[in-house]
Automatic annotation (TrEMBL):
<protein>
    <recommendedName>
        <fullName>NAD(P)-binding domain-containing protein</fullName>
    </recommendedName>
</protein>
<feature type="domain" description="NAD(P)-binding">
    <location>
        <begin position="10"/>
        <end position="159"/>
    </location>
</feature>
<dbReference type="InterPro" id="IPR051783">
    <property type="entry name" value="NAD(P)-dependent_oxidoreduct"/>
</dbReference>
<dbReference type="InterPro" id="IPR036291">
    <property type="entry name" value="NAD(P)-bd_dom_sf"/>
</dbReference>
<dbReference type="InterPro" id="IPR016040">
    <property type="entry name" value="NAD(P)-bd_dom"/>
</dbReference>
<dbReference type="GO" id="GO:0005737">
    <property type="term" value="C:cytoplasm"/>
</dbReference>
<dbReference type="GO" id="GO:0004029">
    <property type="term" value="F:aldehyde dehydrogenase (NAD+) activity"/>
</dbReference>
<dbReference type="Pfam" id="PF13460">
    <property type="entry name" value="NAD_binding_10"/>
</dbReference>
Length: 317
């Protein structure tokens, strides 16, 4: 049996960690790059931890030697300095993918679509960003196309799952990790749909697509449907069912973000994403269905319960 090797950047994060573990289950040897492996490595995770900096092309090239898949799931800490750091980080991964002739897998998202894409954009819909993050996301995809490396972009909605990080709306607003759910902070508007993506389903989709290497074009991009909340109330209802009571629902304090921006740089970035909570935008997964036949999909109640358990939000009863 041929040994398949993957390098994952961002294996301590939500997407990177989920993809790394799913690749392992599929028999891959998975290397994980980190500046301080001794601090994060655990024997039970089964990953081969490699010391290196995702910003240093030489480190990424060396770590990717012999790999056929490179997962670029790393972001600047706290989403700071995106405009300065994101593209240089991607350039390092592109250099590594070119050197090892690997497929570069980039987790994408809905930010690339603006109002011109319509309420149900497919994978090839016009990309007209409305935000700084959207423009950077488009620049990342363009950089992959222009580089000529074999690339795979999988776009999904807002992440939630047992390994959800603080960058997720689920763990940063709806619930508070490590605490029982008494209150839900709702960023949405009644009647406005919202698209979510369960991390294990995202990882499963990515691994299945990577297994179809022979049938993928040089640049391949797919949208996931994930979990569509048609009226903005279904996710909160699922949380209530999981905890066994109806939590108090409070509105997210959008009006306070401009006041917080001077001391909390992330506030400006969060405010830019408000349009995704005020207008329904549901990505279509036609291309994904055409290739895989079906999209991996965990039932909402099961996914929400697993997420809350992983975040330490379920009381033992």
């Amino acid at each position: 049996m041929t040994t398949r090797t993957a390098l994952v950047l961002g294996a301590t994060g939500g997407v990177g960690g989920a993809v790394a573990q799913r690749l392992r289950q599929d028999g891959w040897t998975v290397r994980a790059l980190h500046r301080d492996p001794g601090r994060v490595a655990r024997a039970e995770d089964g990953l081969v931890w490699v010391r290196g900096d995702a910003m240093a092309a030489a480190d990424v090239v060396a770590a990717a030697a012999g790999a056929s898949l490179l997962v670029h799931a790393v972001n600047p800490p706290g989403y700071r300095d995106w405009d300065r750091l994101v593209l240089p980080m991607l350039d390092a991964s592109i250099a590594a993918a070119q050197a090892s002739e690997a497929r570069l897998l980039l987790p994408g998202n809905v930010y690339v679509y603006g109002r011109d894409a319509g309420p149900n954009p497919g994978a090839d819909a016009p990309q007209t960003p409305r935000t700084a993050k959207g423009r950077i996301r488009i620049a990342m995809e363009d950089r992959l196309r222009e580089s000529g490396v074999r690339s795979l972009v999988v776009r999904a909605g807002d992440f939630f799952g047992p390994r959800t990080t603080a960058n997720s709306w689920f763990s940063a607003a709806l619930v508070r990790p490590g605490r029982p759910v008494r209150t839900v902070l709702d960023p949405g508007m009644p009647g406005v749909g919202h698209q979510w993506a369960y991390l294990p389903d995202v990882a499963e989709t990515m691994v299945r697509l990577a297994a179809r290497e022979a049938g993928l074009p040089r640049f391949a991009a797919f949208n996931m449907d994930g979990h569509w909340d048609p009226d903005g109330r279904q996710m909160i209802a699922a949380i209530a069912r999981a905890v066994g009571r109806r939590p108090r629902v409070r509105r997210f304090p959008w009006a306070l973000l401009p006041l917080a921006a001077p001391v909390w740089p992330l506030a400006r970035e969060i405010r830019e994403m408000r349009y995704l909570w005020r207008e329904p935008l549901r990505m279509r997964n036609d291309e994904l269905l055409a290739l895989l036949g079906a999209e991996p999909h965990t039932a909402l109640d099961e996914a929400v319960r697993a997420t809350l358990a992983g975040l330490g939000c379920l009381e033992s009863r």
